[in-house]
Amino acid sequence: MPDPVPPFVLKNEETFAILDSRGEICPELQHEAGIFHRGTRHVSRLQLLLWGRSPVVLSSTERGAVGVLVSHLSNNNGDTGGPAAMTVHLERSTVLTPTACLQQFCFTSYQDRPIQMPLTLRLDADFRDIFEVRGYHRSERGRTHRGHDGTLELIYSGLDGEDRLTVLRLSDPIQDVSEDTIELLITLEPRQTRRLFLVLDFHPASVPLGPEEHYHTAMAATVDRFRDARRSAAAVVSDNQAFNSWLMRSFSDVHLLASQVEDGLYPYAGVPWFSCAFGRDGLITARQMLMVEPRLARGVLGYLARRQASVDDPAHDEEPGKILHESRLGEMAALGEVPFARYYGAVDSTPLFLMLAGDYLCRSDDRDFVASLLPELQAAMAWIHRAEATSADGFLRYLRVAEGGLSNQGWKDSDDSIHHADGRLAEGSIALCEVQAYAYGARRSLASILQRLGRCSEAQALLEEAAALRQRFHKAFWRPAIDSYALALDGEGQPCEVRASNAGHCLWTGIATAQAASAIARHLMAPTSFNGWGVRTLDERENRYNPMSYHNGSIWPHDNAVIGMGLARYGHRSEALQILTGLFETASAVPMFRLPELFCGFPRREEEGPTFYPVACSPQAWASASVFGLLEAVTGMSIEREQGSSRVQVRLRNPCLPKGLNLLDINGLRLGEEEINLQFHRSDHDVGVLVRGRTPGVDVLIMK
Fold first, then answer.
1. Which end of the chain is more exposed for a tag (fewer CB within 10 A), N or C?
2. How far apart are CA 681 and CA 243, in angstroms?
3. What is the edge-to-edge ordering of all strands in the sheet holding 698-703?
4. Highest mean pLDDT: which of 143-147, 468-472, 612-616?
């Protein structure tokens, strides 16, 4: 019977674990469970038996604030020669390092006499690539070897010439080792706690520590990691405990997924299928987190700049100046069985890279760093110019070249996501509406950077390009029949007259006219699109609408956050507040307040929660970050820096708060060298703002 509790997730750098409520892996109950390292499943089974039986689960907690799973267990019934059921308590704690999984077992017996407890550990490692776990078939694999030299060692010799290994070590002597089982006997004194430490090493030669010391070192490191993350970011706290739980879970999940890179942290996209660097996901996550955690943007920008394409390589959809779509480790990527070792098949990551750079500079005033990226920023804009120049209508388009690459290369990248009103799939090179909006935002963003660096004539040329693009875009994409922008133009220049959430992204960058923005706001918030929990990816009136589809009727939190930020830009703050409220209520209805990658778009019903999408990643970085982007939207926050001035202005336009929140504190909001503390407080008809502290270089303008 499947575990009724959703799986628990831990991650540290290139290692992540998907565990059940016992802190275990049982492949018969959950096929994607396991401990994965560098794109390969290094543990496919991990089970503990007491007196030959699985323990009973009392409770399990994923302590997101410190990145640890704690499971409280007890012995099963006593018909196997052991003591009476529920007389031995086990507290099992699990923590990861970048190269290992470690567990502490704390056994306490409530018998009135000493007992001997036989303990069995079952371990297996199938060393399957993440794409195999996901369902890809391979015609040939490497070989697995096993060793029993006082422990249990599994080695996989891959077709790529790399050996991958898993070694189980224990702090207690082992009585017996077989092919996939370890047996030992533990003495439990009455009401005394007996500890046992387990280590699963994936690079054992690099860790000389014993199991107990290794565990305690790992625990201290992960606690410090999450504590440092909280110290570096603005603290956001409300007077609503459920909202605070959502905030804390979301912040912790972004940092759970973040990996250390050259210039800071990079939020990996999501577990299990996307635990690697994705350009689009990282850029949007960093932008949503910019209010509270600007160092994520620095890490993302630096990482992507270092991996910007410099050659033409059709096998990876690579062209000079393009920004990475994804970068994978693992045997299949190394062998080219999938093209994703370094894959550039995304039309939007390049303009999003430029947009984030401009926003980051405005927030952080990190001029030296952004100036160091200027060659990559200009190369990115040059790619946009070249791509537009090769298009008959001058719009930024995509067309897959790489065999096995993505046929659709916007954020809705499933095969059936871009289509006409009659359901026909769009063919040929595709110009997505939101991508033109990003291209517009990219020009304005690079212009703002050039202005800050004193290159005003180049900046002015980009602003003129942006203005011309805005006019051409509205003329080509506005469709009166649907009172919205077309989802896309196909290869023949024919518009896909489909009401989709993509149009909401056009508000985010400012390419939409005010009249168009109002019309889009109306249809996005209508019951055919907004189902009570969020905005659907596709309006239910459309031919391909299916609330259970990946991109044609489901609800994606990050999509809603981008739409909310766009609505707020055009003054539709109450609509942005409605989206925030819907996602808050969704978070309150799902386990651990953890918003998944997506969920189904069925209409909301009284006394029913949202309907889950079965293979959604959870946690997913841009879903977790959505609350922070939406808070920026509903508080009306924007940052302005005058050319040649060292002062920064925080503008708060018509702030509002969801029902149930009467106070919201944002403390330690960093703006480069400056800092500000704000409190938003609700009255019956208004939301007031109190500046509770600021450094001398900050001005605050409250606009109502």
1. N
2. 15
3. 637-641, 648-653, 698-703
4. 468-472
At which residue do the structure tokens 């969801």 appear? 658
272: preceding bond cis by omega (within 30 degrees): yes
Q: In 299-344, where do the E strands start and end?
A: 326-327
Alpha helices in 433-572, H assignment, sequence order: 433-452, 456-477, 502-509, 514-524, 557-569
Q: Which of 82-96, 136-150, 260-274 has the lowest mean pLDDT?
A: 136-150
Residue in 678, 690, 701 with CA at minimum distance from that of residue 237: 678
- pLDDT tens for 469-483 read 999 999 999 999 999
pLDDT confidence of 79, banded at 50, 70, 90?
low
**What SS3 class is residue 643?**
coil
Task: Report pLDDT for 174.
Answer: 85
Q: Determine the pLDDT at residue 2.
A: 42
Are 314 and 380 spatial neighbours (Cβ–Cβ below 8 Å)? no
Phi and psi torsions of 389, nearest 5°? -70, -25
Query: Tokens standing for 249?
Result: 């879970």
What value does the mean pLDDT take over residues 28-38?
93
Element (H, E) at 237: strand 235-238
Contacts of 269 (CB under 8 A, 6+ apart): 257, 275, 276, 277, 278, 281, 282, 326, 617, 620, 621, 622
Residues 6+ apart with CB under 8 A from 633: 561, 564, 565, 567, 568, 573, 576, 580
From residue 373, alpha-carbon distances to 307, 310, 552 in Å are: 12, 15, 37
1 has pLDDT over 60: no
List the alpha helices (DSSP H) in 571-612.
573-589
Nearest CA to 274 among 134, 385, 468, 417? 134
Q: Which domains does the chain have, with CATH numbers?
A: 8-225 (2.70.98.40), 233-634 (1.50.10.10), 648-703 (no CATH)
What is the full DSSP assignment across 397-441? -B---STTS-S--SS--STTSSB-TTSPBP-SSBEEHHHHHHHHH
